[in-house]
Amino acid sequence: MFKIAKATLRNRNSSVASLFYSIQARSISRQSKVVKIERMVEKEDMHVTRVLFCGPHFPDSYNFTREYLQPYPFIKVDVVHYRDVPEVIKNYHICVAMTMQMDSNVISRASNIKLIMQYGVGLDGVDIDAATKHGIKVARIPSEGTGNAASCSEMAIYLMLGLLKKQNEMQISLRNRLLGEPTGDTLLGKTVFILGYGNIGIELAKRLKPFGSRVIATKRFWPASIVDSDSRLVDEKGSHEDIYTFAGKADIVVVCLRLNKETVIFPLLLHHKLVKQMNMKSCSWQ
């Protein structure tokens, strides 16, 4: 990624590349504005490296980037609503996709784009083949070592607890000044099936163990490094051929697969074919 950013910015200060790795390390909460299209390109900006954030969601991402780049006047950041991106993307050199669907039509208009960057791991919204065809590099922030996987796994824990503790019903009870209802459940003793034991799956297993949960997981193949270092985290291992069997043992299923043509069908299969095999007494989905 460093080499990509360095090549993209030519002889500019290469430290700018590091912002894409540190972009999730800080949080700056303040209001941000989406730029107006007619103001985006001015004559004095002809020698400026222009960065496009496909907005308007996740405002901390571009707020932090703008603050980080204040010492670098030759790099400017704009935030454009995703519906307007196809019309203006030709005016930019770097595009941060966010939740924008970067399909072949949008990419074909990106005549000056050198890099499509994702603010996170998922590149399922980017047509990588089309980008490659147009000579555009595609990159992402890796989940390992950046806080990304940890953040996702913590969100999964939060959702599990919310379901088990019946969070919505509990809020209603509190508003009605009722205590002790509904009666929630615990992660203690629950079997959690992690479908796709990658970086997020590993971080999730680390957090489930202190709750007293039994962790079972499937992975396409198990490298020796994972088996040796993280064997204590998983009580039972399997491959994707075992998903039906493992689902039948699980109280909770967490899908941690990268979304692509091969895996897009898994959630649908789980919903329609596996519900009856799961422990229906206490069944949760993430």
Automatic annotation (TrEMBL):
InterPro entries: D-isomer_2_OHA_DH_cat_dom, D-isomer_DH_NAD-bd, NAD(P)-bd_dom_sf. GO terms for molecular function: NAD binding; oxidoreductase activity, acting on the CH-OH group of donors, NAD or NADP as acceptor. Keywords: Oxidoreductase. Residues 158-263 form the D-isomer specific 2-hydroxyacid dehydrogenase NAD-binding domain. Residues 84-150 form the D-isomer specific 2-hydroxyacid dehydrogenase catalytic domain. Transmembrane segments: none annotated. Pfam families: 2-Hacid_dh (PF00389), 2-Hacid_dh_C (PF02826). PANTHER family: D-ISOMER SPECIFIC 2-HYDROXYACID DEHYDROGENASE FAMILY PROTEIN, FORMATE DEHYDROGENASE 1. Belongs to the D-isomer specific 2-hydroxyacid dehydrogenase family. This is D-isomer specific 2-hydroxyacid dehydrogenase family protein. It comes from Arabidopsis thaliana (Mouse-ear cress).
